[in-house]
């Protein structure tokens, strides 16, 4: 028993030192943190596919990894092409035309100023204020372009790390399990649930964005919104914004349509977006994504806010995971305590019989 206790203490000490060194390295290489997290995410998403081809179908490992990397590049290339070739130039074009912005703004302003309900709040609208807002938005364009460049860099880092993670997958996983000073059942629970959380968020972000974007695009087209494809893409991209999400796009679109005199279509579009665009989020979260990992909606919302602050884009995946970890670790603590109590009553070999 004493030897076992000493072994566990050494493991805990070495684990603490390892985590400390990893934290120092990540701080010093913070520019590549998103790439490292991306590699972990991609590994969890592609691990089963890789092992199935190499171990069950006896594919060459290098050929399999090359195929996986190619598929990942293709999956990233399409949304990045849409972002670079369609969204950013179109946004830049829209906000650069100050006269058109002021003209459209004045239309909305007159509608709001003449609204009997809004008159009670004594809201002030001015051309100077809208120009200040436009200039502020323009100032974000260079940072957006920098973000695109940083994203390319982190994708390269993620793919580079992923190559070695897949090549050494079995050894890496075995060493990780050996380092954890936990029982086999607790290790299994911790790793399985953490991977499920990462998998759920990694699939959830693009699935929700794509679904809401397509549904919004159809609605914009039906109810006569100009540039329906562009606004649909923008609505899908806005789905990653915490709390407000797609409302950040479709509410101004509906208000503008009503303000320009198309009241009927504007009101119908508002109902359409509220019910379908907003509703598909709840439907997917409580059906498809709930099967992958049971994450409370509040954890998702506040996790995304926290994750974006800490990790940038990859915070969309790891923010909710970080907020979910206390619950997982508490469950692990309960499992370890129950096992310890059981061992005190039945003997030290209990784990071998119940694992």
TrEMBL record:
Annotated compartments: Membrane
A family per Pfam: AI-2E_transport
Segments crossing the lipid bilayer: 15-45, 65-84, 147-166, 202-223, 229-251, 263-280, 300-330
Entry superkingdom: Bacteria
GO CC terms of this entry: membrane
Keyword vocabulary terms for this entry: Membrane, Transmembrane, Transmembrane helix
PANTHER family to which the protein is assigned, alphabetical: TRANSMEMBRANE PROTEIN, TRANSMEMBRANE PROTEIN 245
Protein name stated in the entry: AI-2E family transporter
Record organism: Marnyiella aurantia
